[in-house]
Design goal:
Elements: E1 3-11, H1 17-25, E2 42-48, E3 51-57, H2 69-81, E4 85-91, H3 95-108, E5 112-117, H4 119-124, E6 127-129, H5 131-138, E7 142-144, H6 153-165, H7 181-194, H8 204-212, H9 227-248, H10 252-271, E8 272-274, H11 284-292, H12 298-341, H13 346-364, H14 367-383, H15 385-399, H16 407-412, H17 417-422, H18 430-439, H19 449-459, H20 464-491, H21 510-544, H22 557-565, H23 577-585, H24 592-601, H25 603-614, H26 617-629, H27 634-644, H28 646-674
Helix pairs in contact: 3-10, 7-8, 7-9, 12-13, 12-14, 12-20, 13-21, 13-24, 13-25, 14-21, 18-20, 19-20, 19-25, 19-26, 21-24, 22-23, 23-24, 24-25, 26-28, 27-28
Length: 675
């Protein structure tokens, strides 16, 4: 049998779902040892036995209750797209918690294959699961996998092919989970009422259970003729809920969850065998967590780790950056000599040397620093520390009245603000989402690093790591302060605590980490070859026009643009037009700030010398602060518009720019006063 089929991949956050996706499709989607890596649908394909099987990696979710955007994405896909089959990925070492989602998928009537992932970790913990017995209980195939090692993946593919060929699939008529008699009676009443309006895409029992849990939005998938019928169904559900809570003396959602977990424990006890010789001592993860997430030591340890990272970024990356810098300078001089020897146009020489090498080259010099940063952050992610960092900072977030889960997207912002803003989809409250989106651009992304490295190497040579480290700390502090102000004025929402799974510590998977470093670094190089190149060419052209004026002078077009913003920048301490031009074009991409300065001042080597004549250490630090806080790049503004709307995108542009001007002005003027 040949054909095209769609298979959805569902599972809890941090269950190894994306690793299964990568192993099945050969893709290289991001894999992280902390929750929330997948916040949108991702697709891949594989071919077997003449069949094209599309795999859709759904966001990691704990249940099918659509409380947050990532859960809604998953539920909507399962209801409306109706995949031919669903692979439910279960973390074998956390079997009971992961099974909750599986019970919901069974109630939903999905055709299922269960992947018992991380079975090696479960066995190390002394847990042996009888997959054949589990398969009989669930009435669906079960296969053990270790996705990161591609163990069990071929068997999983073969099972998928067999199940997709079996079009006569029928689930058992009796439900896996039964509820107290009173609830079952009410469910029957509701199913009787709505069965007239049933569509092929929905299972009546699952729909009735979720209506009980308060998700009335699901009624839109029924074939309701008018609003009156909808209100009548809502009234019946509400009345049944009230009657049940009075008679049973407990919330319906708690009773339903208890029934599910009771069945899950029954299944676990029948299929799982725990080795009698398993050590009862505290695991290594628990021992390390006593120190790393300690109430008093957690934050100092986090800050110490970040400082060590930036020290290595400069000590190791700086040596390599100097090597590239020297190469760029020598290449520029070599190119100039050879082009002049063959009477090449001075305009072309200026374009190649001042524009391309001076602009793009001044950014590429910092590639080693960025690679080292990506590598170290990637190692922290993979060993399981970044989830702890979010947990540690939650205490500060709670104290300031901010949602605890918000710190996870903020941490992602250290890499890039765009995926960080997309990660806010995991937040349950719309107010929390908007609030977190508004403060995420204040986190210092990697695109700002070339600016910091350049100015720190010129003005703070003995304290480079400390100065750059301060930018990241200030970004966090400003984000928290702004978030506190916004939550108290615009949103005034209740604080939601951070509830998340802390993954076990593990040795970093060097292959995955290096792959991730390559992906991020190649994106930087691609940006250098497209956006940054295009901008520096534009800057060079505007610096050369009108023809006949001195290159990059006040009388050039670029000089006129710079003169427009120059007065605004005098109070922060860098009131010269070249700085204004760099910041204006930096809106397109933050790396362009350095590229623009390099184009205007003639390359990396000359740039370092020239900057010392324009800036003082105080004004340089003020410029770094402005670059940290002011308007996010165009891609970030676009994703804010997509996720929060045009109003909040424009608000972010204006508030960040004003805040940048205010803070840099205060720092410069106060510093100048005391100096």
């Amino acid at each position: 049998m040949s054909g095209r089929f769609t298979v959805a991949l569902a599972g809890n956050p941090n269950s190894g779902k994306t690793s299964v996706f990568n192993a099945l499709t050969g893709s290289n989607q991001r894999v992280g040892n902390w929750p929330g890596v997948t916040v949108e649908k991702k697709e891949g394909k594989f071919y077997k036995d003449g069949m094209e099987i599309k795999i859709v990696d759904l966001p990691g979710i704990y249940s099918l209750t659509a409380d947050s955007i990532d859960q809604k994405i998953a539920v909507d896909f399962l209801i409306h797209e109706r995949p031919d089959l669903v692979i439910c990925v279960i973390d074998s070492s956390n079997f009971e918690r992961n099974m909750y989602l599986l019970t919901q998928l069974i109630e939903m009537g999905q055709k299922l294959v269960v992947a018992l992932n991380m079975s090696d970790i479960a066995e190390k913990d002394g847990i042996l699961i009888n997959e054949k017995k589990l398969s009989m209980i669930l009435n669906c195939p079960v296969v053990k996998t270790v996705a990161v090692k591609k163990m069990g993946i071929e068997e999983l593919k073969a099972i998928l092919v067999d199940e997709l060929r079996n079009s006569s699939y029928r689930r058992k008529s009796e439900p896996l989970v039964t509820y107290p008699n009173a609830i079952e009676t009410s469910l029957t009443k509701i199913m009787e009422k709505i069965k007239t309006y049933q569509t092929k895409e929905i299972n009546l029992r699952w729909l009735s259970i979720n209506l009980f849990l308060g998700d009335m939005s699901l009624l839109k998938i029924l074939n309701l003729k008018d609003e009156g019928i909808r209100r009548e169904i809502e009234k019946i559900v509400l009345q049944e809920t009230i009657d049940l809570q009075k008679s049973l003396g407990e919330d319906i959602d708690i009773l339903i969850a208890n029934s599910k977990y009771s069945k899950i424990r029954e299944i676990y006890n029948s299929v799982a065998l725990r080795k009698s010789d398993t050590k009862a001592s505290v695991s290594l993860t628990a021992k390390l967590d006593r120190l790393i997430i300690n109430k008093y030591l957690g934050i100092p340890i986090f800050l110490a780790i970040m400082y060590i990272i930036f020290t290595l970024v400069f000590s190791v990356g700086g040596f390599l950056a100097d090597f590239i810098d020297s190469g760029m300078t020598n290449f520029g001089e070599f190119l100039t000599r050879n082009l002049e020897s063959i009477n090449t146009s001075s305009t072309l020489i200026s374009f190649l040397v001042d524009g391309v090498i001076g602009g793009v080259g001044s950014v590429l010099v910092f590639l080693p620093n960025i690679v080292i940063l990506y590598l170290l952050i990637g190692l922290l992610e993979d060993i399981g520390y970044m989830a702890r960092a979010a947990f540690v900072m939650d205490r500060i977030m709670q104290f300031l009245g901010l949602p605890g889960k918000s710190f996870i997207p903020l941490l992602l912002g250290f890499g890039c603000n765009v995926p960080a803003i997309m990660a806010t989809r995991t937040l349950d409250s719309e107010k929390d989402r908007i609030l977190t989106i508004l403060i995420t651009p204040l986190m210092s992304c990697s695109a700002r690093l070339p600016i910091y490295v350049l100015f720190a190497s010129v003005f703070f040579q003995k304290h480079q790591a400390l100065v750059v480290f301060s930018m990241y700390v200030i970004g966090i502090v400003v984000a928290i302060a702004v978030g506190k102000f916004f939550s108290a004025t615009f949103f005034n929402s209740t604080v939601s605590p951070l509830i998340m799974e802390l993954p076990i510590y593990r040795l970093p998977r060097l292959g995955y980490v290096l792959l991730r470093v390559w992906q991020r670094s190649s994106m930087f190089l691609k940006k250098a070859g497209t956006i940054i190149f295009s901008v520096v060419v534009l800057v060079w052209l505007l610096s050369s026009l009108p023809f006949g004026v001195e290159y990059a002078s006040e009388k050039s077009v670029i000089g006129y643009i710079g003169k427009l913003v120059e007065p605004i920048l005098k109070l922060p301490g860098f009131g010269f037009w070249q700085a204004g031009v760099a910041l204006v074009f930096g809106f397109l991409a933050k790396e362009v700030v350095v590229g623009t300065l390099g184009t205007l001042f003639g390359g990396e080597d000359a740039l370092r010398t020239v900057l010392a004549g324009y800036f003082t250490p105080l004004s340089a630090y003020s410029f770094m602060l402005f670059s940290l806080i002011y308007v996010p790049c165009a891609a970030t503004v676009a994703i804010i518009r997509q996720e929060a709307g045009k109003k909040w995108a424009w608000f972010t542009v204006f508030y960040t720019t004003f805040l940048a001007w205010l803070i840099s002005t205060l720092v410069y003027q106060i510093g100048k006063f005391f100096a």
